[in-house]
Amino acid sequence: MIELKLVDESSFQAVLDLKISEADERARFVAPNVRSLADAWLYRKNEDVFPMAIYWDKQVVGFLLLEIDKDEAEYFIWRIMIGQQYQGRGYGRKALEVLIKEAQMDRACSHITADYVVGNEKMKHLLTSLGFQETEFIEENNEIAMRLDLKKEE
After folding, report:
1. Full-model pTM
2. DSSP labels for 38-64?
3. DSSP string covering 78-121, please?
4. What is 2-149's CATH number?
5. For tag attachment on the chain, is the N or C end more exposed, with fewer CB atoms within 10 Å?
6. Contact 153/104 with Cβ under 8 angstroms?
7. Which residues form the N-acetyltransferase domain (predicted)?
8. Are strands 133-138 and 74-82 parallel, antiparallel or unpaired?
9. Alpha-carbon torsion, ordered 146, 118, 4, 59, to 10 deg
């Protein structure tokens, strides 16, 4: 079972130890987790950026940096990565499914946005398969922005 938990003292080192493939690293598809944790720390006073460890049972298998923008009624997936040794097992999909369910239960959230670096076909396929739609090209970052409008259960 996949769980998303805030990074804390018990998961901090495991998150830092997660690595991506050399090919993905060269392509710069995702920033290193140390950068993501630094970003979360920089924005900590805003209380809207949440570094999440992705757990499979009791093992940290990935990392997700989430921004919750209440003014925009949005969950923004700033970054998501699954450690190289855990890829290909569906953990990324399951983590996003958990996040989507959480967002659907949050009455203040109307949509989820994410983006991916052009050329990252795995991320494009994953987001598309979950119902995300392309919204724009962000030239300065060479990224495609995507959006998932949430269906709320009454």
Report:
1. 0.92
2. HHHHHTGGGT-EEEEEEEETTEEEEEE
3. EEEEE-GGGTTSSHHHHHHHHHHHHHHH-TT--EEEEEEETT-H
4. 3.40.630.30
5. C
6. yes
7. 2-151
8. unpaired
9. 160
